[in-house]
Amino acid sequence: MAAAALTREGGEDAFRRLFRFYRQRDASDLRGVVDFSAPGGQVFRSQLSISSVSDQDAYRAGLQPVSQWKAYGLSGYPGFIFIPNPFLPGCQRHWVKQCLKLYPEKPNVCNLDLHMAPEKTTDLWGQSKEQLRRRGSSKWEPRSLLEKLRWVTLGYHYNWDTKKYSANHHTPFPSDLAFLSEQVAAACGFRGFQAQAGILNYYHFDSSLGIHVDESELDHSRPLLSFSFGQSSIFLLGGLKREEAPTAMFMHSGDIMVMSGFSRLLYHAVPRVLPNPEGTALPSCLNQALCSDLPVGSVIEHSSDEDWQVCAKYLQSSRINMTIRQVLAEGQKFPEESGTNGKGQAPSEDSYHENSKAKRHKPNRVS
């Protein structure tokens, strides 16, 4: 009832009021949050472009055939598509392992680079795996480097001074993640989507992500793709102004969210990370084993039991989110820049995520 009253109230910074409401509420007071596993109210079924992705390409990306996906939209948010976990059994594990073991490696950029020497941020996985595997339940144990990871950027890296991307600050985009993104975008009607930049966010139970709009890409006609793994979260989707109250929704492990068209430039935020609704250490979809016969050309790799043990321990109190975007339209180039090396200064670690002690929520630019 309190959330509904705040939603109706509107006025100055209605988004911030609801952000704080969900940041502070316990898990038993979330009746106003949209749950796409039991859709109703403003939720409606959304049509997908089934013929745009062959079953073979879906399998190669670790996805069910598009004909088996469920997709939903929200009234008042044209261009917003929510796809509850379309991954094949065991395939989420590949993306979790990539986000923890491979993608944080150089030449990609992470928050630890801001205050550690390059040689200290090499092989975060190797430096952390034994500590993670032995981790107990005490919150006073020192954190591993992987647990201090807050963000990783891929492809075109954002310039935090100019708030722009640059041709001068680019590293190769992972081919497996590009293939996954292309299939999801095509299924949502965006054939020819090019995965050119990615931001990975690493959340813990005390993490949140501030109110922001993703508008720095030069091509807004292409969608923003969001993939979630691990524990659950509350996602707030607002309007073109912060005075418009947002809609709250759950995101669970394996869920995919697509923001396109009108919804591409809407304010959004993550006020809260929650234990998965099954009440178990990990959601059951992450306990499923990968089939032994992978299709020819699959981008999915089997994870060793040893590697998954480390990933599972990490995810017991964490959530990983991958947001993928196309920066440039076909044939488009970056405008000429002067007086910059293209890299700029990255934000402080806390300007991305805010812990439970934060009093002021700063806008950020990833979901």
Automatic annotation (TrEMBL):
Compartments reported by the entry: Nucleus
Ranges annotated as biased composition (Basic residues): 358-367
Protein name: Nucleic acid dioxygenase ALKBH1
Keyword DNA repair: yes
Primary residence: nucleus
PANTHER family: ALKYLATED DNA REPAIR PROTEIN ALKB-RELATED (PTHR16557), NUCLEIC ACID DIOXYGENASE ALKBH1 (PTHR16557:SF2)
GO annotation terms (biological process): developmental growth; DNA repair; negative regulation of neuron apoptotic process; neuron migration; neuron projection development; oxidative RNA demethylation; positive regulation of gene expression, epigenetic; regulation of mitochondrial translation
Keywords assigned: Dioxygenase, DNA damage, DNA repair, Iron, Lyase, Metal-binding, Multifunctional enzyme, Nucleus, Oxidoreductase, RNA repair, Transcription, Transcription regulation, Translation regulation
Cofactor binding mode and count: Binds 1 Fe(2+) ion per subunit.
EC number, as in UniProt: 1.14.11.33, 1.14.11.51, 4.2.99.18
Species of origin: Serinus canaria (Island canary)
Gene assigned in the entry: ALKBH1
Oligomeric and partner information: Monomer. Interacts with DNAJB6.
Residues that, per the record, bind Fe cation: 212, 214, 268
Region (Disordered): 331-367
